[in-house]
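Researcher: Hi, I'm a grad student and pretty new to this. My advisor asked me to get structures for two proteins we've been looking at. I'm not sure of the right format, so I'll just paste the first sequence and hope you can take it from there.
Model: That works fine. Here's the first sequence with its structure tokens right after it:
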Amino acid sequence: RHEWLKHGTCAFGTLDSTSVFKYFQLGIQLKLLYSVDLILKMNGIVPTLKNSYKASDFALAVKKAIQVWPTVSCTFEK
């Protein structure tokens, strides 16, 4: 419920996500289809305490891999 309310509801209007089931089903399908960890690693984006990355770095890596520009944004909580 938490994940749906926090993340899933923003998918309305952009995807055919008319139910909680479809939202999570699509998430699982995308996870099986694309290895985000590998996509990022192949573009030099790896977890580190020394370097930081821009949202555009992530977007470009995804664009190169799957030919689609993702929407990437950063939110900082205080």
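Researcher: Oh nice, that was easy. Here's the second one.
Model: And its structure:
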Amino acid sequence: MKYIIVLLALTLLINGQTTCPKYQCKLKTQKFTDNTCVVYSNNTYYVSPCKTGYCEVSFGSLNSTCISSTKTTYETNMYLPGAKCTINDDCLSGICSKTCQGISKGKTCNSTLDCNPGLYCLNSQCTELITTRLNCSNQYSCPYNSGCNVFNNASACIEYFSLEPGEIVGSCSENGMNLLCKSGYCGINGEVYVCTDEIESVSPRPYYCTLGSTCYSKIDQKIGVAFSQECLCGLNNLGTPHCNIFLGDYYGMKYKEKLIKWVRSDSVKNCNTYARIQPECMKDWMNINDYNEIMYYYYLFMYYPYVAEAEDCVLENYVQDFYEAKNDIDTDSFAEIHKLFISIVLIMWF
């Protein structure tokens, strides 16, 4: 969560500029004080990862320093029922017994955030999630693998990413996304919203763009329009802007694949229903390899312009979750290539 907030702050800072700043590893000729992790000079941020603690990132033309604390104020008292915890202050409920404890079935609640995993707040009582398709109030009242589709005063729980192109949905978000659609997107068709085909960028990877321009998808045949994304500055060493990408692009498709696997798993049921697709819930209940995989593609889909073509030292300071996931993916890939190489050598030898 800490690193996502950093990226959102960077959005406000660097994307009102006419040129993008550069981020690169500290030069060998530069001397940093022991606790300095970022030095700013001439529109370039020179970065040296912290040996302990983490880099408390400053913005604008300020330098940044390492601090020893690993927990920040906005992370305190934020864990929902079902989340792993160590002390009572970790939990929204104020009660920790290895996991944050919430309100049980049939007991009084003010919000679904109060209820234990598998429950939602209905008429001020924690109630089991809906088991039938009909009469849902919102997606968090549905089973963990489903969301609520409301249309013509009727509602039903529909499995995520299951509705075919052309099928009707009750609403579309401002950016055109709807996780009930197989593509993840929808748009207006006549007087109703319908699911689209897969939405992918016109531009090829690595999705370069001109700062201030708009990035477009290919035109969808179901609704006859293209979707748009922003062209944003990022954390790379050339100051090159990139387009935000779509769910139909490679990294979006990989993220969707991992997300579908997660919401259909038994592990997600350990989380409060509001936390079903939150990274914190995944970190608690996924095995480490699966977690690193989904986080790798999550960042590449959600924050592509920021992490694209960035140096490892920069990622380690600014987006440590992604840096750790990337390292795990790279290590696994190298191990697979090494095993393949050994197999080929053995076949040729014998």
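Researcher: Is there anything I should tell my advisor about the second?
Model: You could mention this: The chain has a mean pLDDT of 89.
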